[in-house]
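Journal club prep, notes for RB
We'll compare a predicted complex against what the paper describes. Inputs for the magnesium ion case:
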Amino acid sequence: MSEPEDDTDRTLMIGLERLLDVVQRFDEPLGRLTPLGERIQAHLGSDVTAAPILTEVVAAHRTVDLDVALEELAAGGELLGVRGQNREHEGLEAMFSSRSAGYDVGAVDVTLAASGPRIRRRVVAFGLRLLTFDGEPVAVLQRVADRQHGREQAGVRVLARESATAERFVGAMRRLMHERSVLRGQVLTLVPRGEYRAGGESVFVEREAIPEDDVILPAGVLDTVRRHVLGIAAHRETLLAAGRHLKRGVLLYGPPGTGKTLTVRHLIGAAEGTTVVLLTGPAIRFIQEAPDLARGLQPALVVLEDIDLVAMDRGRFGPQPLLFAVLDLFERALAQRPGRVDLAVDVPRPGPDERARLFALYVRGLALGAEAVRTASERAEGTTASFAKELFRRAVLDAAMAGHPLGDADLAGALDAMLAADAELTRSLLGMGDAGGSPDEDGEAAGGPGSRRGGWTAYSPL
Ligand SMILES: Nc1ncnc2c1ncn2[C@@H]1O[C@H](COP(=O)(O)OP(=O)(O)OP(=O)(O)O)[C@@H](O)[C@H]1O
Ligand SMILES: [Mg+2]
């Protein structure tokens, strides 16, 4: 048991010691701080060299989101530039203590970053924000990804008197990035960034409107797909209220040029407000990143296009492991998770009815006789939808090159040439002596000549 006054003495001694410590620490580094360090220290009102620094890395494609969030959190604060010889390579600590490098307040570096399909935003590339958060002074160094200097990702370094403040700040920053994300509701595609092993960078794609009537498929097909993809979304609240999930998937498969991609483009256009992550061909290697991106921006669709191209892309992107990864993913999705890919739709070549509708669609705006169009449609049996589109383009081109107005004879001539080319291609591909079987069996028409069979597109909304 100690005497009460002993206790008081001890407390006083400890207090004095601490005070001396603080005074000393204040005194020493103060003299050695760079002008930049002094500025930060003045803002913090405490020893800058003792302040904890929290580093938060942000994916390069969230650069704009980061800037938006920081601008909001820093409202009323100060934005400074950083000048100094080695600022790209040195840490924040060096910036306020390394006097030889001459760190000082300079001009703010800004850059332009896409914030929509046709819009760019001015964002801070390298800057220091001095702000007040939760009543506490905070200093934030903001940087964009800079491949030239080996910085693959964007990020912040947050300085506060207490690490808890810095942590709360980063939490608020992440929440705002999520809430205000410029990626939300957009159509995005992932493209390689830097080294091919590095992650994908998201690029905005314009959302196009493809009318339902411009997608010509056998009766009921488009409706089924639309109902599955868009209809369920329309009943989102009901499903959620009943405790049911909204995940679903569609697999579209069929020969080239039959409208799988067109169907997907139509769906994307119709799913206004839904975030879309589009992976085409070799970009399917971002198969791990896409769902993460989409999940954070729900409601969202992930589109995997032309998966069969991955198999052909030998060597360059290490296709085998990737192909297996994708196949594995699909096998599991199809076999074990009926909630994931629960609709497989065959997109066939057009039958006589669809062909007539396709010809009516693609003849629009052209002065051609109804009878000539009907005859051509019948003669084009076995060809794909893209063949129809190409046929009319070719007729227009042939007439222009011949120097006369478009007439029925141009359509007939273009059809002869295309059917002959098709037959020739089929012959050479199959190594046959004559035209061989019907194009329906053996070849593909324009838009996807027989080189590729059974192209398929998976459309897999989350
Ligand atoms: N069902 C269709 N209705 C109307 N136009 C079509 C249809 N299918 C194809 N087309 C026309 O042909 C073009 C190419 O078709 P699309 O890219 O959709 O084929 P695909 O089935 O995705 O082929 P691939 O397997 O080669 O990817 C379309 O942009 C469109 O102009
Ligand atoms: Mg396609």
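Talking point for the session: The chain has 16 helices and 14 strands.
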